[in-house]
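Q: Hi! First time doing this. I have a protein sequence and I read that you can turn it into a structure. Is that right? Here it is:
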Amino acid sequence: MNGIKIRRALCLCIIPILLSLLLTACGGNKLSGTYYSTDGISQTFAFKGDTVTMSAFGINATGTYKIDGDKITISYSLFGIPYDWQQSFSKSGDSIYIGGTQFIKE
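A: Yes, that's right. Below is the predicted 3D structure, encoded as structure tokens:
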């Protein structure tokens, strides 16, 4: 029972971080490559085809993503619990912005 509570608490802490890292391209374009956060916290988004792997604090979550205008939606599962996460999105040069956080392409 405690394991489930700890996992849920961890998910609730990690989800906002992962959400702020969500990456997408404008106009429904697909993203490719790995993007790193610039805020001093080790966060990455790795895009390939329709999939994205989000990494933060040693935890990885892989799912699918969709860009719709200035929003990105990432659907993934963490510790067996499914999530749909939506954030603001924009792209400028080699940078993407998810939930207002800048990520630079490697």
